[in-house]
Design goal:
By secondary structure, this protein is of the alpha/beta class. The chain folds into 2 domains: 116 residues, 2-Layer Sandwich (Nucleotidyltransferase, domain 5), CATH 3.30.420; 175 residues, Hexokinase, domain 1 (3-Layer(aba) Sandwich). It has 14 helices and 14 strands. Helix 7 crosses helix 9. The chain is globular.
């Protein structure tokens, strides 16, 4: 029998797939069970779902009102996605067959945007103080396996709507000869004609900067551990991150503030709390006065995407 108050939320990322069952109507949600699964250990979306039977979520499967899956890629025709960093496709119909519940796919940073209005957003830590306009657009950006972006746009009656973006796959704007030297080196490493924001502002991008600066090649987890020993690596990454946040904040006119999400900042908060980030975020000869009013917050709850998807699922069920 379907429970009218139970919904499933999922955040399918290139590295980890997070799942949760929540009780509530969208305004107030309570997590009942959850599971993290390594995405790469499944050969298909259907196989990933089958693995849920071995987790604490098994008793809830088949007893759900609705489900929302946040996926790391564009959603086509409202029910299908071919994520860039996952070897298989995702279809809402596959989840509906497995769960027996109405299912919606959304971009993963759409979920992060809705999370700004859920528990993770309320617990976000202030990185740069400002004066948020409560009726202004909110920018959400975050580095993880790639770089995600979304905007939370206010609507009449206190409602809001999240707008997805795939701007992370655009070319990164390098400035000055030092950065151009790195760009030329990194393009050779990537065997591509230009470096995207995803290439640069991600775990592998942080590892590339570490390799370029120190001459030592290391995997992203090791670079995170070594980062306190290499402030030059941190500051260069922070400069790039600050520029990406500034540019996106200006693109969407984020007078409501900027929320930084994603695993890189959550695991390496110094990358956005150091002076190099702040200097680059505020650097503009035309819009510095506006940027200085925009607060920047770190949403470091690594299940924030789940909470955003749960909020939407609860509203859908209602």
């Amino acid at each position: 029998m379907v429970d009218v108050n139970l919904v499933l939320a999922a955040d399918i990322g290139g590295t980890n797939s997070r799942f949760g069952v929540y009780e509530g109507n969208g305004a107030v949600m309570k997590k009942m069970a959850g599971a993290w699964l390594a995405t790469g250990e499944s050969d298909s979306f259907a196989q990933l779902l089958e693995r849920l039977r071995t987790t604490s979520m098994q008793p809830y499967l088949g007893n759900l009102r609705a489900a929302v899956f946040a996926v790391a890629g564009p959603v086509e025709r409202g029910n299908y996605s071919a994520p860039v960093y996952i070897d298989w496709t995702i279809a809402a119909s596959t989840a509906e067959d497995f769960l027996g519940a109405q299912t919606v796919l959304i971009n993963d940073f759409v979920a992060q945007a809705y999370a700004c209005r859920a528990l993770p957003g309320k617990r976000a830590k202030t990185v740069l103080a400002g004066e948020a306009d409560q009726l202004g657009t909110v920018a959400v950006i975050g580095a993880g396996t790639g770089l995600g972006q979304a905007a939370l746009v206010p609507l009449p009656g206190g409602r809001f709507h999240a707008v997805p973006s795939e701007g992370g796959h655009g070319a990164f704007p390098f400035v000055g000869e030092e950065e151009q030297e790195f760009r030329r080196w990194y393009e050779k490493q990537l065997h591509t004609g230009y470096v995207t924001l995803c290439d640069l502002l991600s775990g592998r991008g942080l590892a590339a900067i570490h390799f370029f600066v120190t001459g030592r090649k290391s995997e992203p987890p090791e670079v995170s551990r070594l980062l306190p020993e290499h402030p030059a690596v941190r500051d260069l990454f922070a400069r790039f991150y600050g520029r990406a946040c500034r540019d996106y904040a200006l693109n969407v006119l984020a007078t409501g503030g900027v929320y930084v999400a994603g695993g890189v900042a959550a695991k390496n908060p110094d990358c956005i709390s150091c002076g190099a980030f702040a200097t680059e975020f505020h650097a503009s000869h035309t819009m510095a006065h506006l940027l200085e009013k925009m607060p920047v917050l770190l949403m470091d709850d690594q299940e924030s995407g789940l909470w955003g998807a749960a909020l939407l699922a609860g509203q859908q069920a209602r």
